[in-house]
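Consider the tokenized backbone below.
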């Protein structure tokens, strides 16, 4: 925790925290454990006089170096969350702290620096990630040149090696498969050593096997460089490839599935997701709210009201029609 300045007191200290006027070093010490903290995040899109609630009080904490998968049906708010975390969109309400930055309080210039230095993005469409007329090596060097820090060839080569493409550095995207192009895209996203790598359905155009391989690449670079990785996917079978898979439903995190033990990653089957590898939890937010799975609601005939009963060390949720059932 940073120290208070003379005369400002604790309230002054907190004011400085929320106004985002700490140095990066100071901020790094504030949020040591969690690199991302979303509190009651709300995003409302307005189209004509219609309002779309894309995020409805989303709460999420992510630890440094963690690899988190975000799963959810179409329109649940996955891209909205990623765009906010990536500095491409701003929340309507709530707060988000990312790597010491207060997302709500960033100036235009802060956002440029944040997007350049803190975040690496991998998109679903390889053509959005890569420049077609540049080789793999040149694509990786491009973000470094744009940052004005030369074109560290050794680092670009190392990254291409880390994503398994040491023999492809002189090839252009059109000469590579979709999976290889996404590997290059991961290397490009890591070029400026971001703390966080965001992937919005980066395996969406790939078959399941290639998708699983790309998840392994994300995992490898996360371990190798300590990068925090957040990957959106439609493919539930890939949930086993991550440390934690969180499910978004209607703009809120509803459940999460957490890897039980830190397995030996050298020979782990990344696609294995089951009761032995992961524990599944329903998420209870800071206001005590939780989401009951839709199939349970249907099966139990629960519509707008339910009965809550505490029994020993458990809580029962029942339909009002089954009030007296056990
Ligand atoms: N720019 C926008 N303007 C208006 N509404 C938007 C905008 N972006 C997203 N939405 C709406 O917000 C909701 C969440 O959208 P979002 O793109 O985050 O979903 P998603 O989970 O990424 O879906 P998909 O799996 O299809 O990519 C949807 O109802 C969507 O129509
Ligand atoms: Mg999306």
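A designed sequence for it:
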């Amino acid at each position: 925790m940073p120290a208070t300045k003379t005369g400002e007191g604790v309230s002054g200290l907190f004011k400085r925290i929320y106004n985002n006027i700490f140095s990066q070093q100071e901020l790094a010490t504030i949020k040591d454990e969690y690199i991302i903290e979303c509190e009651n995040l709300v995003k409302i899109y307005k189209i004509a006089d219609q309002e779309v609630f894309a995020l409805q009080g989303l709460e999420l904490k992510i630890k440094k170096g963690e690899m988190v998968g975000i799963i959810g049906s179409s329109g649940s708010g996955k891209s909205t969350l990623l765009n906010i975390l990536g500095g491409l969109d701003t929340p309507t309400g709530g707060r988000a702290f990312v790597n010491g930055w207060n997302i709500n309080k960033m100036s235009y210039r802060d956002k440029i620096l944040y997007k350049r230095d803190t975040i690496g993005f991998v998109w679903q469409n390889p053509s959005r990630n890569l420049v077609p007329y540049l080789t793999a090596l040149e694509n990786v060097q491009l973000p470094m040149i744009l940052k004005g820090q030369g074109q560290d060839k050794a680092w670009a080569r190392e990254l291409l090696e880390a994503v398994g493409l040491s023999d492809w550095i002189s090839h252009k995207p059109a000469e590579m498969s979709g999976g290889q192009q996404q590997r290059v895209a991961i290397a490009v996203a890591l070029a400026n050593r971001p703390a966080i790598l965001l992937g919005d359905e980066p395996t969406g155009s790939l078959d399941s096997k290639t998708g699983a391989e790309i998840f392994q690449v994300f995992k490898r670079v996360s371990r190798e460089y300590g990068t925090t990785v957040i990957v959106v996917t439609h493919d539930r079978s890939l949930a086993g490839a991550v440390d934690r898979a969180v499910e978004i439903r209607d703009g809120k995190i509803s459940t999460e599935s957490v890897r039980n033990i830190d397995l030996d990653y050298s020979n782990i089957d990344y696609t294995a997701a089951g009761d032995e590898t992961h524990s599944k939890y329903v998420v209870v937010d800071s206001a005590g709210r939780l989401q009951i799975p839709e199939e349970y609601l249907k099966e139990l005939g629960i519509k707008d009201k339910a009965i809550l009963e505490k029994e020993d060390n458990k809580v029962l949720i029942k339909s009002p029609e089954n009030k007296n059932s056990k």
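Residues 208-225 form the longest helix (18 residues).
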